[in-house]
Amino acid sequence: MPLSTLPSPQGVAIRGSGVAASCCAHLLADAGFAVSRLEGGAPRVPAILIGEGTQALLCDLYGRPDLFDGMFPIERRIVAWGADRPVELPHRAVVVRGDVWLPGLGGAQDSGLPAAAGEWVVYASRPLPANAGEHAFGSRMASATAVGFEPNRESACWIESLDDGWLFLLPDSSTTGWLLAVGASRDRLLERSHLIAGVVRATGAEGGTFAAHPRIADPLCARGWLACGAAAMAFDPISGDGAGAAVREAILAAAVIRAIHQGGDVTRLLAHYRARLIAGLLRHLEMCRTFYASANCGPWWAGEIAALDEGISWCGEALRAAGPFRYRLHGLELQAIE
Q1: Number of other residues whose CB lies within 10 A of the CB of residue 75
Q2: I need a surface site. Which of 49, 62, 63, 110 has the fewest CB within 10 A?
Q3: Helices (H) and strands (E) in the chain — how many of each?
Q4: HSE value, Cβ hemisphere, 13 Å, CA-based, for 127
Q5: CA–CA separation, 261 vs 240, rounded Å?
Q6: What is the CA radius of gyration of the chain?
Q7: Is residue 148 predicted with pLDDT exceeding 70?
Q8: Contact of 32 with 118, CB cutoff 8 Å
Q9: Hey, how many other C-beta atoms are within 10 angstroms of the C-beta on 126?
Q10: Is the pTM of this model over 0.85?
């Protein structure tokens, strides 16, 4: 994917160390920008499930067909959702330990450019600028716990809905993994579990809770800065597409900054960036609503569905106000739509 490079270096400071920050740094450095890396918060989840599509995209971006070699494979998922009996479905993915792989993802080396000298700042990790707020669509919290289980189950992950939340068991080896509990506490959900409780053999102390509901920064960008990745939007982990969304946002953020430095209209380009991210959140909220509506009935699910409906309405109104998209990506470059 060729990039048009700059005649002279331009400064960009990137805050964060995760997928979005690393991809954005890599793309901008390839385009001739002087990239400064700023410290950001560590990933909140200990492991990430990355599907085939996101793997292929990252391998292409980095020119590294071996990027996921040796990662723990997932070949199927076992699902007990709502009133349905457990079903086994094919699933092609790998499990990536956040503390092992993400810092080594690469991207540009720090150019040494002082942060103050950056003409643009990409916030891929919080805090955002002081004027940035947030819209949250739900209240569900989650916790992650290290667990052990019997061997010979290493090719599967498990997901199960209960009356006030859901469980997700993600192995990172043949006998160990992570249990994500969303909604009620881990112990409360395990007490009523018929699927996952029978798989887990040992659990560590329940980790601290973190937000698991969708949310979006507002504003997402302004002259001189863009929010990207988890700093821009947070997805419900049920989607399994957090890493893919972060990569796509990084590609768009880098394309917008390049287009601005090539003389593009700043206001129009930033409006396009905001609209595209809101459109991505809208798709995510609609997908979440489909899953949540098919889960166990009860007050907890009804409350979270109502919050998703609020988010869908907010996104729809924002997109109607923004009007039609004015650019499209061609490879890694933005092109105006005539």
Answers
A1: 12
A2: 63
A3: 6, 19
A4: 5
A5: 34
A6: 20
A7: yes
A8: no
A9: 16
A10: yes
Mean pLDDT over 70-97 rounds to 91
Predicted confidence at residue 149, as pLDDT, reads: 87
Token pair, residue 29, equals: 């450095």
Q: β-pairing, 120-123 with 225-227?
A: parallel
The pLDDT of residue 50 is above 80 = yes
Residue 159 has pLDDT above 50, yes or no: yes
Q: From CA 204, how far away is CA 193, in angstroms rounded? A: 18
Query: Are the CB atoms for 60 and 30 separated by under 8 Å?
Result: no
Higher-scoring residue by pLDDT: 79, 296: 79
Q: How many CA atoms lie within 13 A of 123 on its CB side?
A: 19
Location of structure tokens 């003409």: 119
312: helix, coil or strand? Answer: helix
Q: Which own/partner pairs from 304-308 qualify as long-range (CB within 8 Å, at least 24 positions apart)?
A: 304/138, 304/139, 304/140, 304/213, 307/137, 307/138, 307/139, 307/213, 308/137, 308/138, 308/214
Indicate the burial class of 133 (C-beta count within 10 angstroms; 0-12, 13-18, 19 or more): exposed
Separation between Cα atoms, residue 139 and residue 212, nearest integer Å: 8
Distance, in Å, from the CA atom of 190 to the CA atom of 199, rounded to the nearest integer, reads 11
The residue with tokens 């609020």 is: 310
Q: Give the residue from 219, 273, 265, 224 showing the smallest Cα distance to 12.
A: 224
Distance CA(130)–CA(314), nearest Å, equals: 23
Does 127 sit behind a cis peptide bond, omega within 30 degrees of 0 on the bond before it? yes
Least confident of 107-121, 219-233, 265-279: 107-121
Between helix 299-322 and helix 266-293 the angle, nearest 10°, is 160
Side chain identity at residue 163, one-letter code: D
DSSP assignment string, 77-112:
EEEE-TTSPPEEEEEEEEEEETTTTGGGS--PPP--
pLDDT of residue 239: 83
